[in-house]
Write the structure tokens for this entry.
Amino acid sequence: MDSSDEPGMTGVMVIEPMGNAGPFLVKAAARLGIRLYAATDERVHAGYEPWLTRSLAGVCLTELADTARALDDMEAYCRAHRIAGVAACWELLTPLAASLAARLGLPGNDPLCAKAARNKIAMAEAFRAAGVPAPAQAVVATAEQAHDVAASGRLGWPLVVKPAEQGGSWGVSVVAGPDGLDAAVAAAGRFTRAEPHGLPLDSRVLLQSYVPGEEFSADTVVHEGVPHPLPVVRKDTTAGTYRVETGHSCPAGLDPRTVRAIQDTAARAALAVGVRNGVAHTEVKVPPGGEPIVIETGARLPGDNICEIVEAATGVSEANAYLQAVTGQVPHTAPTHEAAAALLFLLPDRAGVVEEVVIPDVPGTHSQIHVRPGQRVPEPADSSGRVGHVVARAASVDEARRLADQVIADSRVKVS
Ligand SMILES: Nc1ncnc2c1ncn2[C@@H]1O[C@H](COP(=O)(O)OP(=O)(O)OP(=O)(O)O)[C@@H](O)[C@H]1O
Ligand SMILES: [Mg+2]
């Protein structure tokens, strides 16, 4: 399965490139002259798309849910292939990447606090210890405990209820009062394993105080403990009980001081969870008239094609910067142009079987449909309810958003 290792070319092991950041890493590796290897499970590897298989110099087949075995297998593989860097492409696997890099003596994140980048309970503790602004919260195991916390008034209303370990807004609800609490705790506590690798999850539930305001993401590439901020991206979500991300746009349309405040806060969050040589994707909300508050951070590249939006708007390749950081090089993060890009998702208005999805072809935009006719889609309560997206590029962010809005308004989703 391995192609011959070309001496002189740097090799990077990606722990599971099957994910949204995979294509961006593949493109960046080609630009930087880096060979990419993957570590994955046999069953997951069987489902790799042909473009991904073609892009890899080799694959280490292991069992990622079995940490001890995966570390042994990957260490042996990396030594045999003279791997010079380790990258994680899947949030739940970021602690494994930190441990692997440490074993190999390669640039990586602090393995002792890497869990804080995947587990929101450990993350809250790390934020508290480092003084990173984050919502007040409590950990519960049952709805009864949740009612006790809510009745104490400590977190106020509305309350945000979420799983300790999950992504894609799965199981996250914003609850207005005690009536919604039982269902929200049940929804957040239902995850015990994460597919496709069957990784065991902490199924405890977090209650957080609700942070009002606009939402942004800011990524940070860190090299030898020094944070290099990346462009700030505005995030749109649904309102109400479920907060599904509906779009991302860059630049964020903020004054320079607020941009810097968001980038500084994101960098502190990244360092607090042990990111030392790598990248972090941080989500913040900015209350009206207030300072940024961190909702979460992950030691990985962003999902939702944010890499594409940032590169189209600024020329900065987050994937390049990440590969540079994990191979011990100073990352290139200086913008090379000033333009704008906006991505909007297409959501059905209810659950059902997809009959038809049509996204019009408009100059300055490109789109992708994520589902096939006959496929069942859930109600849009998390990111799995999105059926397609459009990306618009323009000179200004207002124009990019206008174009993307128009395409979504003219799109059709029929479910039965
Ligand atoms: N404490 C909070 N206050 C206000 N809104 C919140 C809070 N926590 C979460 N949210 C909203 O819910 C969304 C999803 O929450 P969170 O980011 O914690 O979950 P996730 O599943 O890790 O998300 P992702 O979709 O980024 O993987 C956030 O983007 C935000 O809009
Ligand atoms: Mg999030």
